[in-house]
Amino acid sequence: MSTRPAFEALPLKEDHPPYSAWGLYGEHDELGSLNLLTQETVLAATSEIETGTSISLNLPLNVPIAPMNPDRGAFKHRFIVKPFSNDDEVVVNTQSSSQWDGLRHLPYQASKTFYGGFTQDDISGPAPTTRGGVHNLARKAIAGRGVLLDFRSWANNHGIHYDAFSTYRITLDQLLKCAEEQGTEFRVGDILLIRSGWVEDYYRRSDEERLALRGRAERTFAGVENSLEIAKWHWETGFAAVAGDTNAYEAWPPERSSSLKHALHEVFLSGWGMPIGELWNMEELAAECKRRQKWSFFLTSQPLDIPGGVASPCNAMAVF
């Protein structure tokens, strides 16, 4: 368990947003929960490497072929043919494929404040700063022990079937039972990956059906339940970061009438400074974990150094 303040002690100051941990790592901190990835934690995680097998956790940049959010542009790739060589250019929305949500993505909706208290003015006002930018994740260079909860496989084994493009809410009890059956134990500083089956269900669809997903009147996706007990478990277990194969990590749309009354995005990103990975490709990873009967591994991720950026492709891989 983490030695951080108890979940019930949050927020650390009365005038801070609910469940926030502002100031825990210093007034000007921009790494949030990534501070848990100490040199000692990373070094200990290298014991997960046994054979040198490496697995990419990234979808191609043009998958999905149309981002689920219609306000996000699709990937574009242009060749530049020159007399003696070739160049190319890409245009990509940083949240359109496998990516990290950085700390500038979603503020607390009531106060409109981001991690540590910066505001939209700090991002796009008359005197903008780079505070909270995704370049901080890039310069940290994320590495540590990754742990997969292969929820889709667990659900199938227990007769639970759902379309990952529906609002299926994964409960804490289900996650704990999945971890128990895998024999998975957690350590402070782990990077938690949850496979809901989004990628599997996406590839089962035709191109026509994939394009139609973008135009739905309401975007719905499977993910973890947006509840107080889920938030408390994430905090007290001490995860450095989390990632899912779905669009928003938590089930979407989040149930704001729940005990939490906030989207996990608000608490994780703007409360704790904890990056959220989305649309990660965990299919080959899940198969390898099942083959080995081992669901932990060394994980590396090198986000793009975009000064002041909101998000970045994750460039992540697992090493066994």
UniProtKB/TrEMBL annotation:
Gene3D superfamilies: Putative cyclase. One of its GO terms (molecular function) is arylformamidase activity. Signal peptide: none annotated. One of its GO terms (biological process) is L-tryptophan catabolic process to kynurenine. It holds the Pfam family Cyclase. InterPro entries: KFase/CYL (IPR007325), KFase_sf (IPR037175). Belongs to the Cyclase 1 superfamily. This is Cyclase.
